[in-house]
Write a structure and sequence with these properties.
nine-stranded mixed β-sheet; four-stranded mixed β-sheet; 18% strand
Length: 327
């Protein structure tokens, strides 16, 4: 696949990135598990390096992933090859790095500057390519946050910025800033906020896609009896009834289309995202080298065909007009 542009920045990135939430390790947020269970740092480092070898040049992390641990691992990987990798991280949550606890959030200018400096230190770099506001439903003064980010651009600490939000109005507010180039939104073959993707098209932003595999559900590895470790945030899932059970059934209905043409289920799910729009950049998570290899292998298949996209819409009962972005 060809490289994709990070919105109005013009920066060229691989069609997919490496999402590093899972490799941060166990954390709690408001007393609930927020991590993905125990991790092997050597495996995490090897997996990221393998992704780079396979042509991925975009890594997405956040200061709260493992309350700093994920950023430190990314810092190890990019050491000595900083100019080869486009690094995105996020800010907004308050946390205790030592206790691995996350609580409230802030978006005021002072906090934005402090958070940036801490991330720069952990990443071992003097600039961040894409700095993203992590509080998707922030009710404070978002214009102050945006202006603070413009100040960080002027200071040379970040190159571009964006907002991780599914709200189209919030995405549009940030897009008024000169150096906003992306919105990070939840998006998968099972659904997403189409209006937010529309904003990306109208405002010349990249749509960075979190949850493209729905926390692993679209890999085909789970069934109604699957359970998760106590320190895995998915332990609250009920695959027998409720939202996750419905999603599992939707996946089963479209699985044959996703896995046609020699694709694995995960690869098909990523190829669907590329078929949706030329602005999409999925960032699937991983914990092993094998997972990165499988995900990166989707690039050899490319986007789903128009016919396959239409088949999935028909199976899921969706009107395909949502895919007409007006570009």
């Amino acid at each position: 696949m060809q490289m994709r542009k990070l919105g109005r920045s013009g920066i060229e990135v691989s069609p997919m990135g490496l999402g590093t939430w899972a490799i941060g390790g166990p954390t709690t947020h408001g007393g609930l598990q927020s991590g993905w269970g125990k991790v092997d740092d050597e495996q995490s480092l090897a997996a990221m390096r393998r992704g780079l070898e396979m042509g991925i040049n975009f890594i997405d992390t956040a200061d709260v992933y493992g309350t700093g641990h994920s950023e430190r691992l990314v810092g190890e990987v990019i050491a000595g090859r900083r100019d080869e990798v486009i690094v995105a991280t996020k800010f907004g949550f308050e946390y205790d790095e030592r206790k691995r606890e996350i609580w409230g959030g802030r978006g005021d200018a002072e906090y934005v500057r402090q958070a940036c400096d801490r991330s720069l230190e952990r990443l071992g770099t003097d600039y961040i390519d894409l700095y993203q506001f992590h509080l998707g439903g922030y009710e404070g003064d978002a214009e102050e946050t945006r202006d603070a980010l413009e100040g960080l651009v002027e200071a040379g600490k970040i190159r571009w910025y964006g907002w991780s939000t599914d709200d189209p109005d919030r995405a549009r507010l940030f897009a008024r800033g000169e150096h906003c180039c992306a919105v990070q939104q939840s998006l998968s073959v099972l659904g997403g906020r189409w209006e937010t993707l529309q904003v990306a098209h109208e405002e010349d932003l990249a749509s960075i896609n979190r949850g493209p595999l729905v926390k692993g559900l679209l890999t085909g590895k789970f069934d109604h009896d699957s359970t998760f470790a106590d320190d895995d945030n998915r332990r609250r899932w009920d695959l027998r009834e409720g939202t996750q059970a419905e999603q599992l059934e939707m996946f089963r209905n479209v699985r044959d289309v996703l896995t046609s043409e020699g694709r694995t289920a995960a690869q098909g799910a990523l190829c669907w995202i590329w078929g949706l729009s030329g602005r999409t950049i999925p960032i699937p998570g991983f914990k092993t080298v094998e997972q990165v290899e499988e995900n990166a292998g989707a690039m050899a298949h490319g986007p789903l065909s128009d016919e396959e996209m239409a088949q999935i819409d028909e199976i899921l009962g969706r009107d395909s007009s949502y895919r007409h972005w007006g570009d």
